[in-house]
Design a protein that fits this description.
By secondary structure, the chain is of the alpha/beta class. It has 2 domains: 152 residues, 3-Layer(aba) Sandwich (Rossmann fold); 89 residues, no CATH class. It contains 11 helices and 7 strands. Strands 2-1-3-4-5 form a 5-stranded mixed β-sheet, sandwiched between helices. A two-stranded antiparallel sheet has the order 6-7. A hairpin with a 2-residue loop joins β6 and β7. α5 packs antiparallel against α6 and α8 packs across α10. The relative contact order is 0.09.
Amino acid sequence: MEVSEQMNNILCQRIGIYARLSVRNTEREEMSIENQLLLVGQYLDQHTECQQRKVYVDYGYSGANFQRPEFQQMIEDCRLGLLDAVIAKDLSRLGREHLQLGWYLEYFFPVNNVRVITVTDHYDSARLTEQMLIVGLKNLLNEWYAVDTGYKVRLAKRQQREQGNFIGAKAPYGYRICYRNGKRVLEPDQTFSVLTNIQNMRRAGQSSVQIANKLNEDHIATPEIYRRTGILRIPQDQTTDKWSGAMVRGVWNHKHIACCSNTSGDNDTA
């Protein structure tokens, strides 16, 4: 189907342009927000004189999640009659879960008199009779892609853990991330002594608030202050953030710290 065929009936309509990029980094460069908008913009520039365009962009959202803020805003604008057509690079930008996407394509958009066009799929809701089977198949493939990608990410993380790699974004309090023998591992840093004191006070039956008060008396920098400055002890004449019970619990409840504590015989979950 020629592009001109697809666009010849949407001249001067109010058009919503939708782009989405997943939270994962597995999408190819041509899927970037900039490239999506460029492709759709060129598409419209060549085949319509309409200047009533509104752009909706969701960055960092999976296609399996339909509660994306800009997608929902576009849906609301359709419901209010503010859009006559919605255009995206391809169907997977709208969503990757075929039942939910099917509901929008087959019910919501038709009921609200909104035409849907995707550029690279050559999908046009005005020509549904000859495209329904193809769209259904594309939706199924998109959903499979989302599930398969999620599985591969989880599998890769599990394999990294089994090989002895630390896969967290930040090291827990008391440790730093380093690379040894090709592995990303944790090793104690200068806050490890503070972590040991926290664990000892906890084993002695002190509450998180009591431990926080002791740390403040000793002028120990909070985890955030230490992360920013690298200073372990704050000079007495300086005013800074104070430890709280919640901060202490955040330290001992970190899954890595909790695992190490439980391994050593500390099962206190208070």
